[in-house]
Design goal:
With about 270 residues, the chain is of the alpha+beta class. The protein is built from two helices and twelve strands. The protein has two domains: about 100 residues; about 160 residues, Rod shape-determining protein MreC, domain 2 (Thrombin, subunit H).
């Protein structure tokens, strides 16, 4: 009867028979076939497709990241242009008012060799001292913000009084509001940085940036100190209790920069 079938149907019948035979053989001998060998053959067979999918996925991710970076660069360029224009206007206004221009900060890099204090570090030892031009009263910062000031100087080392030292006090202001206060560290009832001396009449909100005010002779103006983390009424009911989250991670310091202080030799360091 096969002779009466068209050639295409005869080929289909042969293939169907081969498939049926192969399926029967797999059912009978499947347990005896080494699984590791089959997995290896499958991995070898599909490896090029896996690599192709991975390459396509990475190209797609790189394309999306490239678009985000281009957008960010554009935003930063626009912001930089706006800040340059604002800087020019600021210089003109200060000149017209007879005010001195802001001076650029000089940064001396140093490595943090040790932290001292429990449970919160109160001081740090730097790998820079008098030989590197470090002086008592110099401010110490990281890329995030203010760390403290130099309290002792030796030939090749210096000791930094951190913001978390109970005897430290930093004159600060809240960005864009001009609210003034003094940053102090309190160890009890729990370790916390508080911006003190702020009347209840002043309006504040959580998340605002706190900067050095420049009213102190110890620190240059405009250094980031931290952000308002919690607001409450002080026990006397007349001032805010303002908890500040420090900008710099004081317990994980590795590198820092020493900023020459504005205090002139022989001048009394005010708060």
């Amino acid at each position: 009867m096969g002779g009466f079938l068209p050639p295409a149907e005869r080929r289909s019948g042969v293939l169907l028979g081969l498939y049926a035979t192969l399926a029967l053989l797999l059912l009978l001998t499947g347990d005896r076939i080494p699984q590791a060998g089959l997995r290896g053959a499958g991995a070898w067979l599909f490896a090029p497709f896996d690599r192709l999918v991975l390459v396509v996925d990475r190209l797609g991710a790189a394309w999306r990241e490239n678009e985000r970076l281009h957008e960010r660069i554009t935003r930063l360029e626009l912001e930089a242009a706006r800040l340059r224009q604002a800087g020019v206007e600021n210089l003109r206004l200060r000149d017209s008012l007879g005010l001195p221009a802001y001076r650029a900060l000089t940064l001396r890099p140093a490595e943090v060799l040790a932290l001292a204090g429990e449970p919160v570090p109160a001081s740090a030892t730097l790998s820079a001292g008098a030989s590197q031009g470090v002086n008592v009263g110099d401010a110490v910062v990281t890329s995030d913000g203010l760390v403290g000031r130099v309290g002792e100087v030796y030939a090749g080392l210096s000791r930094v009084i951190l913001l978390t030292d109970p005897n430290s006090a930093v004159a600060c202001e809240v960005e864009s509001t001009g609210v003034q206060g003094v940053l102090r560290f309190f160890a009890s009832p729990r370790p916390q940085l508080l911006l003190t001396g702020v009347p209840m009449a002043d309006t504040l909100r959580v998340g605002q940036l706190v900067l050095t005010s420049g009213l102190s002779l110890r620190y240059p103006r405009g250094l980031p100190v931290g952000r308002v983390e919690r607001l409450a009424r002080d026990l006397n009911g007349l001032t805010h209790e303002i908890e500040i989250a420090p900008a710099a991670r004081l317990s994980r310091l590795r590198h820092a920069y020493v900023v020459p202080g504005p205090v002139r030799p022989g001048a009394e360091a005010g708060r």
